[in-house]
Amino acid sequence: MEGMESCTCIAPVNIAVIKYWGKRDEQLILPVNSSISLQAKTTVAVSSRFKEDRIWLNGKEESVHNKRIQNVLAEIRRRATRHHVEGADGDIRQPCVHICSENNFPTAAGLASSAAGYACLVYTLAQLYGVSGELSGIARQGSGSACRSMYGGFVLWEMGQSTDGIDSLARQLAPANHWPSLRILTLVVSDQKKQVGSTEGMQTTVATSELMKKRVEVVPQHTEDMIKAIQQRDFPTFARITMQESNQFHAVCLDTYPPVFYLTDTSRLIIQMVHTYNTFHNHTRVAYTFDAGPNACLYLLEEDVPYIVALVNQFFPPPPNTQQAFVRGINVAPASLDKDLLECFKIPRSEGEIKYIIHTKVGSGPQLIEAEHSLLNSDGLPK
Ligand code: DP6
């Protein structure tokens, strides 16, 4: 298409180790506490010069007339230094955009796909429109947790104090290579029931949960201790706070009226498996965390990965004749497990309950990638 310009970027999903749950401002998406996340990756593309703004998500066209998308587009266009034509009448005219976004994670399953999606949208639009400087405040207005995906490594979303949200921003605590031996195993649980979305869930929690009042008081201390644990690469403390945060988040969900359930029986068996492993070693070697869905994210050090993968294979094996790889991402050879370790586990063998495992490291932030990876063809339509 004549005059078309496009830009393709990728952005990471982020799994919170200090949970964001509850807003103090719905419009601006301002949280009631600060939160911290780590990263994995996903892909999005953006192009420009069309008759109307259009968006395709995972191959399906969606309405662009969504408040959050509109807020993000308006903010980017306001700060644009390119494609920003001021007419003789003083009006600002800007070409329309076609947005095409895909992710390789189960959507709406509590794997932070909206975080990666909005982070990528903001980053890609910023490249195209020449918007520089602080972008996490724009991403936040797409989805709260998206502001943390604007940076790689270990990221803190500072809740901020200002009513206009100007100081509710993300910042990097440490780069991705700060803790090279840290690994993430995402256990994708098979039974993905339709859950209450995060936006609605946290609204009901803030409105009804008494426990939430206590949580808001204790999160600042969790955050301070977590920052120190990350700086000092203190795995046992990092792991303990991660698990306590996950448990407290799901406790306030249960204390919500009517209650919100994200954990399933499989999630609870995973929790039991992790604690049994840690108790056997008399040391905290693995942590779990769950967002708004049943999938587990396990944080652990490289040396424990072969054992945990072997344990998942043992207790949650894929059904026989499964064609697709059970472990994806970084290659790993499962360890052989000692009899005395196996005897400690009082959990049933649940075949097919875990669909697959994703093995990753802490990732980097959004990145521009080559035009050959564009999701839009030369007419600006999905390929
Ligand atoms: C459980 O960022 O999806 O993943 O701001 O309403 O879009 P909105 O909510 P969202 O909430 C994420 C909640 C969480 C915890 C976290 O990521 O900190």
Automatic annotation (TrEMBL):
<protein>
    <recommendedName>
        <fullName>Diphosphomevalonate decarboxylase</fullName>
        <ecNumber>4.1.1.33</ecNumber>
    </recommendedName>
</protein>
<comment type="similarity">
    <text>Belongs to the diphosphomevalonate decarboxylase family.</text>
</comment>
<dbReference type="InterPro" id="IPR053859">
    <property type="entry name" value="MVD-like_N"/>
</dbReference>
<keyword id="KW-0443">Lipid metabolism</keyword>
<dbReference type="InterPro" id="IPR020568">
    <property type="entry name" value="Ribosomal_Su5_D2-typ_SF"/>
</dbReference>
<dbReference type="InterPro" id="IPR041431">
    <property type="entry name" value="Mvd1_C"/>
</dbReference>
<comment type="pathway">
    <text>Steroid biosynthesis; cholesterol biosynthesis.</text>
</comment>
<dbReference type="InterPro" id="IPR014721">
    <property type="entry name" value="Ribsml_uS5_D2-typ_fold_subgr"/>
</dbReference>
<dbReference type="InterPro" id="IPR005935">
    <property type="entry name" value="Mev_decarb"/>
</dbReference>
<keyword id="KW-0444">Lipid biosynthesis</keyword>
<dbReference type="GO" id="GO:0019287">
    <property type="term" value="P:isopentenyl diphosphate biosynthetic process, mevalonate pathway"/>
</dbReference>
<dbReference type="InterPro" id="IPR036554">
    <property type="entry name" value="GHMP_kinase_C_sf"/>
</dbReference>
<feature type="domain" description="Diphosphomevalonate decarboxylase-like N-terminal">
    <location>
        <begin position="11"/>
        <end position="170"/>
    </location>
</feature>
<keyword id="KW-0456">Lyase</keyword>
<dbReference type="InterPro" id="IPR029765">
    <property type="entry name" value="Mev_diP_decarb"/>
</dbReference>
<dbReference type="GO" id="GO:0005524">
    <property type="term" value="F:ATP binding"/>
</dbReference>
<keyword id="KW-0152">Cholesterol biosynthesis</keyword>
<keyword id="KW-0753">Steroid metabolism</keyword>
<keyword id="KW-0752">Steroid biosynthesis</keyword>
<keyword id="KW-0153">Cholesterol metabolism</keyword>
<keyword id="KW-0547">Nucleotide-binding</keyword>
<dbReference type="Pfam" id="PF22700">
    <property type="entry name" value="MVD-like_N"/>
</dbReference>
<dbReference type="GO" id="GO:0004163">
    <property type="term" value="F:diphosphomevalonate decarboxylase activity"/>
</dbReference>
<feature type="domain" description="Mvd1 C-terminal">
    <location>
        <begin position="184"/>
        <end position="368"/>
    </location>
</feature>
<comment type="function">
    <text>Catalyzes the ATP dependent decarboxylation of (R)-5-diphosphomevalonate to form isopentenyl diphosphate (IPP). Functions in the mevalonate (MVA) pathway leading to isopentenyl diphosphate (IPP), a key precursor for the biosynthesis of isoprenoids and sterol synthesis.</text>
</comment>
<keyword id="KW-0756">Sterol biosynthesis</keyword>
<dbReference type="GO" id="GO:0006695">
    <property type="term" value="P:cholesterol biosynthetic process"/>
</dbReference>
<keyword id="KW-0067">ATP-binding</keyword>
<keyword id="KW-1207">Sterol metabolism</keyword>
<dbReference type="Pfam" id="PF18376">
    <property type="entry name" value="MDD_C"/>
</dbReference>
